[in-house]
Amino acid sequence: MNYKLFGQSGLRVSELCLGTMGFGTEWKWGADKTASKQIFDAYTNAGGNFLDTANRYTEGTSEKYLGEFIASDRDHFVVATKYSLRDRTGDLNFAGNHRKNLMRSVRESMRRLNTDFIDVLWIHAWDSWTPTEEIMKGMEDLVTRGLVHYIGVSDTPAWVVSQANTIAQFRGWSQFIGLQIEYSLLQRTVEPELMSMAKAFGMTVTPWAPLAGGALTGKYLKGDKGRLPESSNRLGERAIGITKKVIEIAERLNVSPSQIAINWTRQHKDQSVIPIVGATKVSQVEDVLGCLKFEIPVDAMNELNEVSKIELPFPQKFYVEAGVLDVLYGGMRGKMVIGDR
Questions:
Q1: Phi, psi at residue 213, to the nearest 5°?
Q2: Whether residue 43 lies in the annotated active site
Q3: pLDDT at 31 > cutoff 60
């Protein structure tokens, strides 16, 4: 396992992050405590130190298990958890991004994790009601008090993240240094806005569902639908074509489809990307770890990019039209060299 700096910080994290949403069986799936420990050990024995959980995962069991697993060497691990999603049904103040829920949720997460600090605290999702300044001031208060070291944001529009980081910059507060989004060969719609925004702010992207819920392993092509809704876009004609290409390239390189799908997210040479890999069986995490032993060749990457390409939205599509390029750059765009662009 190699390591990367996390966003624009000095925090050192492993190049794969272990997602622990499946630690616990309260949701009628997942891994029991023994299996969860085996998964944890396989990942950490390979050098992994970056662990992702949330207050909601398996009704708090994920945090409890993780707290026990890291207890003997707490400071070695980089533990990331989240707040925003409900801890109590029927009570508006037990969910959302507002300060009251933030403070309560963090306090309870630390109790479950049996720790007096959180390395990375994520907003789990944007609630659209809480003022951005309230969120950033609450996060800054936690950082100032030493309860949280770094902050990140998940599942939030690019304009909101940009607004939040700009406010923080001018106030002298902590900025979001990580962006967590769904990103895979089946989900590339985040590239034009969210990925570009993260690059501009120097944020590390931590994709969730890099295997598209297992679709990119090919298991759904074999009839194993598992917990997948019939309406899921992971079963459509486009998804099937992409998955077949992943399997084809995996066979060509003598590796597994999972390793190809994970490495496609990792191989962004111009941007920091650390995929979150989850597992409910130790064999799954052992398979994924194999991705660290190779890189996908350029020609195969081009094939994957082509089969999974998306139609650019406005205004990105507008900017690449020939007429627009002509009037914007006076017909001389190809003569200009700016950095690596």
A1: 65, 25
A2: no
A3: yes
As assigned by CATH, the class of the 3-308 domain is alpha beta
The percentage of residues in the chain with a pLDDT greater than 70, rounded to a whole number, is 96
Number of residues written out for the chain: 341
**Can you give the residue ranges of every domain in the chain?**
3-308, 311-341
Tens of pLDDT, residues 67-90: 999 999 999 999 999 999 999 999
Average pLDDT over residues 306-324: 95
The tokens of 338 are what? 């700016």
Kindly list the strands in the beta sheet with 118-123, ordered across the sheet, starting from the edge strand earlier in the chain: 204-208, 176-182, 148-154, 118-123, 78-83, 50-52, 17-19, 276-278
341 has a pLDDT exceeding 50: no
The mean per-residue pLDDT over the stretch 32-55 comes to 98
Dump pLDDT digits (tens) for 182-206.
999 999 999 999 999 999 999 999 9
Chain centroid to CA 91: 28
Q: What is the 3-class SS of the chain, one letter each residue?
A: CCEEECCCCCCEEECCEEECCCECCCCCCCECHHHHHHHHHHHHHCCCCEEECCCCHHHHHHHHHHHHHHHHHHHHCEEEEEECCCCCCCCHHHCCCCHHHHHHHHHHHHHHHCCCCEEEEEECCCCCCCCHHHHHHHHHHHHHCCCEEEEEEECCCHHHHHHHHHHHHHHCCCCEEEEEEECECCECCCHHHHHHHHHHHCCEEEEECCCHHHHHHCHHHHCCCCCCCCCCHHHCHHHHHHHHHHHHHHHHHCCCHHHHHHHHHHCCCCCCECCEEECCCHHHHHHHHHHHHCCCCHHHHHHHHHHCCCCCCCCHHHHCCHHHHHHHHCCCHHHCCCCCC
* Confidence band of 232 (pLDDT split at 50, 70, 90): low
138 φ, ψ (degrees, to nearest 5): -65, -45
Question: Among the options 43, 57, 83, 220, which is catalytic?
Answer: 57
